[in-house]
Amino acid sequence: MKKIYINTSKPYEILLDFGSLPKIAETIKEKIGGKKIVIVSDSKVFKLYGDIVVEALSKSGYKVFNFVFNSGEENKTMSTYQKIVNFLSEHQLSREDILLSLGGGVVGDVSGFAAATYKRGINWVQVPTSLIAMVDSSIGGKVAVNLPQGKNLLGDFYQPSLVFIDYNVLATLPTKEFRNGMGEVIKYSLLDENLNNRLKSMPAIDKIIERCIAIKKYLVEKDEFDKKERRVLNLGHTIGHSIESASNYKIPHGYAVALGLYLISKISLDMGIMPEEYFIDLTTTLKKYGFSLEIPYNSATLMKYITSDKKAGTKGLNLILPKTHSKVMLAFKTFDNFKVMLENALLNQSETMEHLSKKPINNTCNNTNNTSNKNTYYQSCSDLWEAFHES
After folding, report:
1. Which DSSP helix (H) or strand (E) runs through 131?
2. N or C end of the chain: which has fewer CB within 10 A?
3. CATH of the structural domain 175-357, one choice from 3.40.50.1240, 1.10.287.630, 1.20.1090.10, 3.40.50.300
4. Percent of the chain with pLDDT over 90
5. Extended strands (E) in 212-350
6. Average pLDDT, the chain
7. Residue 183: how many other CB atoms lie within 10 Å
8. In 223-298, which ranges are continuous DSSP H helix?
């Protein structure tokens, strides 16, 4: 089992392996202890993995209770949060007991917020089951719920006690959700040339996940509370969150981030910051992984949510602008200035797409024969590409 140590104010380990979910109880027992565990999950994930986790924990002597809510970002609300904390109280969890989040980013965010605030903080174990949660949301301690005015407006920083990643659960991940995770992976590739190059040759998915975690570990350890270096992880997110909110969360987070990356890169290109070759490289990668680059909303709609974004100031925004792979810059823009920039990026979209269509796409994805290896789901480019296009 691979171990990655996160040295934050509350240090913890990320444990990564294939087929390790049935052994989760002995690991929790050794590292945390406690007597009761509340599993918080959504209806889709619990149906797949709830019995495995419950059986493992019960056999180890834990008293296990399950709180399951309907899947979907639209349920990351104050109502769900309140039901969770009421459930914890009804079952008299102590601060020595454990809340275990079994699911993707929505489950982790809302249940993590409950863990952070119930009795001012209880033990919290993250068991991410989606690619987007494995590479991003399960690490770094950001927990939150959405408000009608926007995404993640009520939240906290609360580090987990343990993160437990079993790569095997990705086998049941729908294609749409896998691509959703790739939106965040591509964000990381703009921050790291090594990862960008890896995505061109498409290595095994466990190596992609480990590289993303390494990037986030570095930034979280330098800036746990998002005041300086860690802010680069918001690349594409201000626009992405506005697209999510405008769609009433019908556009998933990773897809919205992909569109946010495209638009903020187009703005950076228009400003003369990002060279065209890097912009073409980004759009090629986005299209290769199946993302549409058509923006369904106008600037007025997006600005309504951007002005209430949690990262916005009273007068404007601190933008994370991509330059080249592994290089970004911070620039303050007033809301009026940014609206004009956004309008121009949207106005010139058809022109940009026509221009890009004339550029050759260097698709390094070759159909290679896949050799069997039980420890790797997507070992070759053709394997991964086929997975993204399953019906």
Report:
1. helix 131-132
2. C
3. 1.20.1090.10
4. 78
5. 316-324, 327-334
6. 89
7. 26
8. 237-246, 253-270, 276-288
